[in-house]
């Protein structure tokens, strides 16, 4: 069995920290199906952990990548920019919910998007504190692990994490946590741990992914938006898993009718290629000085937006 042989080879050379949830080894994939090296066909419900929104090897995306690589592969858009870089920003800022003028930055991974959203929030507000929620997942870099609201398996053994990060319970009727419970916990943080005038941002997932696929109640989202407005705190919507129509609308925040100050995007944005973005209110995102935000994303990934 080739699967077993490959898994034995993998175990000898790949760090155990990179787990293998299902030890089948893919030979080819098309749309919603994958075939392993032993010739078995599967329906792919994982989608690369919410990445391949358009299915595997979508012909329009494949052709876009081929066409781009024949022209050039990488220039660094901060050195010598190009049209598709601008075009993608135009499309995303138009699609982002809310009437406020938007701007965008591009990165490579979802964790980078979250890191840069926090940077922008701190630059804009001149504050340091960030509040996240229990059960939330925001990445595996040091800052984003700190924001993530689950110790096992993401944070165990990797601390210490950056300071000025605080957590509140996410509303979840299934676990007996009401909207009022969550809002009271935020007020308790303000009373006991950090005054609101030192909080730069509150970050939340409109639908928690790793937290168990729980949707933020509309009254909670509206109340947090109002709380941020009251105290001059920026609201960051982490749409890395939920973005690009995974919930039936282009972005999950559209279901709850709020406009975040900043949105993080990745995964489904490019149908399987590594690109991420932060899209936010123009006057907020422009708070970072030139050179403070950077992009290393390959142009062949950006051009997928043409498809």
TrEMBL record:
Entry keyword set: Aminotransferase, Pyridoxal phosphate, Transferase
PROSITE patterns per record: AA_TRANSFER_CLASS_3 (PS00600)
Any one GO MF annotation of this record: identical protein binding
Requisite cofactors: pyridoxal 5'-phosphate
EC number: 2.6.1.19
Gene3D superfamilies: Aspartate Aminotransferase, domain 1 (3.90.1150.10), Type I PLP-dependent aspartate aminotransferase-like (Major domain) (3.40.640.10)
InterPro entries documented for this protein: Aminotrans_3, Aminotrans_3_PPA_site, Class-III_PLP-dep_AT, PyrdxlP-dep_Trfase, PyrdxlP-dep_Trfase_major, PyrdxlP-dep_Trfase_small
Family membership noted in the UniProt record: Belongs to the class-III pyridoxal-phosphate-dependent aminotransferase family.
UniProt name for this protein: Gamma-aminobutyrate:alpha-ketoglutarate aminotransferase
Protein source organism: Vibrio maritimus
């Amino acid at each position: 069995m080739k699967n077993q042989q490959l898994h034995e080879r993998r175990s000898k050379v790949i760090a155990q920290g990179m787990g293998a949830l299902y030890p089948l080894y893919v030979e080819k994939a098309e749309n919603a199906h994958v075939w392993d090296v032993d010739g078995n066909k599967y329906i792919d419900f994982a989608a690369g952990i919410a990445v391949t929104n358009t299915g595997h090897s979508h012909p329009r995306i494949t052709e876009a990548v081929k066409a781009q690589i024949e022209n050039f592969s990488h220039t660094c858009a901060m050195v010598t920019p190009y049209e598709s870089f601008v075009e993608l920003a135009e499309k995303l800022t138009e699609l982002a919910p809310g009437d406020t003028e938007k701007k965008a930055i591009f990165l490579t991974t979802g964790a980078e998007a979250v890191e840069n959203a926090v940077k922008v929030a701190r630059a804009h507000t001149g504050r340091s504190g960030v509040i996240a929620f229990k059960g939330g997942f925001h990445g595996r870099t040091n800052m984003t692990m700190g924001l993530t609201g689950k110790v096992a398996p993401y944070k165990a053994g990797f601390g210490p994490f950056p300071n000025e990060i605080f957590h509140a319970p996410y509303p979840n009727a299934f676990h007996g946590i009401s909207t009022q419970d969550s809002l009271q916990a935020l007020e308790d943080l303000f009373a006991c741990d950090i005054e609101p005038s030192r909080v730069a941002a509150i970050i939340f997932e409109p639908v928690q992914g790793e937290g168990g696929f729980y949707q933020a109640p509309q009254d909670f989202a509206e109340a947090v938006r109002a709380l941020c407005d009251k105290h001059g705190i920026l609201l960051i919507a982490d749409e890395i898993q939920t973005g690009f129509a995974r919930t039936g609308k282009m972005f999950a925040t559209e279901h709850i009718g709020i406009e975040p100050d900043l949105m993080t995007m990745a995964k489904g944005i490019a149908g399987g290629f590594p690109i991420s973005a932060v899209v936010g209110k123009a006057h907020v995102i422009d708070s970072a000085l030139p050179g403070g935000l950077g992009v290393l994303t390959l142009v062949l990934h950006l051009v997928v937006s043409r498809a």
